[in-house]
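Dear H.,

Thanks for agreeing to be a second pair of eyes. The structure we're designing against is below in token form, covering all 308 positions.
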């Protein structure tokens, strides 16, 4: 099978930190072009936006969108209408309706659509999922607390409507919990803290319930300096199952398990290659649905203004 000729749209932090290296390390896919308003990359065709890329006539099979979520729909739609397979960075879009519309369009065009959740590829996630399917889960508590100034310097879009604020990292935790939980759950309460000068929350406290009564709670906070916390603690009748470091480490009944090297983005690209070659899509939007619910049910607190 010939290699997939890929273009990246939006050559920013995550494209440079993760996508370029992962594509390089993945068989069956080659980066041939980049479309970014300001950034360029040596050795590939460079365009200023997706429309210039698609109009150029260079041969590409697929597009990986690494732009902010606002505006992603128009880009994905243009790519699918031009008969390209599409890989979406998380979150897959800015609204629920637009991601379902994209899913339908991909089906209509007969192209693969991959809504990625990189945190689901963290080393502890699959072992935790298997373990929890054999245990009786009592409760889940998520603590996702990081320093926004460190991780998102100068990213204005993240504070705008559709940028999700603290849910930009928080949705990673939800992508893990939705994968490892043996049953589905839904939001029952949400408290959101908005800085007085921003359109997106800096902190959130969420409560969910499952049909069988498992309590799921989550605390997201972007104001944590010093050590960072990305932990998910699952209490089971047989003992605690704890994922730390964003899902890359696992403690079972207090004992640390084997930790693998980080392969999140290499796993994503390997999966994308297999989806394209099999003519399939992978579009689980459930983490975004929970975030939308958190905004729908959210009680709004106004907190201290945030300056970069
Ligand atoms: P970023 O550093 O701001 O990069 C996004 C790039 O998209 C920008 O450099 C920009 O390049 C381009 N772009 C196109 N339209 C834009 C617009 N209207 N506003 C701003 N930039 C625009 O953001 P990022 O951190 O890479 O995040 C991109 C996506 O990846 C987000 O959905 C984020 O949740 C996800 N993600 C980020 C991380 C992370 O650690 N940063 C981790 C995992 C996933 P040009 O100016 O050249 O057009």
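And this is the sequence the design step returned. I haven't edited it by hand at all.
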């Amino acid at each position: 099978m010939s290699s997939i000729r890929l273009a990246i749209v939006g050559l920013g932090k995550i494209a440079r930190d993760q996508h370029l290296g992962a594509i390089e390390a993945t068989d069956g896919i080659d980066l041939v072009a980049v479309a970014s308003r300001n950034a360029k990359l040596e050795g590939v065709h460079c365009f200023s936006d997706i429309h210039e890329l698609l109009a150029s006539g260079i041969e590409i099979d697929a597009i990986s969108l690494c732009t902010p979520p606002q505006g992603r729909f128009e880009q994905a739609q243009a790519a699918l209408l031009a008969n390209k397979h599409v890989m979406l960075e998380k979150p897959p879009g800015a609204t629920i309706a637009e991601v379902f519309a994209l899913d339908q369009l991909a089906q209509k065009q007969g192209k693969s659509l991959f809504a990625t959740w990189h945190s689901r590829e963290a080393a502890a996630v699959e072992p935790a999922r298997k373990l929890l399917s054999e245990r009786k889960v009592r409760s889940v508590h998520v603590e996702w607390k990081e320093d926004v100034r460190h991780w998102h310097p100068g990213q204005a879009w993240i504070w705008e409507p559709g940028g999700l604020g603290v849910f930009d990292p928080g949705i990673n935790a939800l992508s893990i919990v939705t994968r490892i939980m043996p049953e589905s759950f839904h939001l029952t309460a949400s408290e959101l803290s908005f800085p007085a000068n921003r359109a997106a929350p800096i902190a959130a406290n969420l409560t969910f319930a499952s049909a069988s009564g498992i309590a799921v709670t989550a605390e997201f906070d972007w104001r944590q300096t010093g050590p960072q916390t990305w932990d998910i603690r699952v209490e089971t009748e047989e003992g605690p199952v704890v994922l730390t470091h964003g899902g890359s480490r696992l403690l079972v009944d207090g004992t640390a398990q084997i930790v693998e090297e980080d392969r999140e983005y290499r796993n994503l690209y390997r999966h994308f290659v297999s989806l394209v070659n099999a003519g399939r899509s992978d579009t689980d939007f459930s983490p975004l649905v929970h975030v939308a619910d958190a905004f729908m049910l959210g009680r709004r607190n106004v907190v201290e203004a945030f300056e970069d």
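Two observations from my side: The radius of gyration is 20 Å. The chain has two domains: 4-115, 119-261+292-303.

Warmly,
E.
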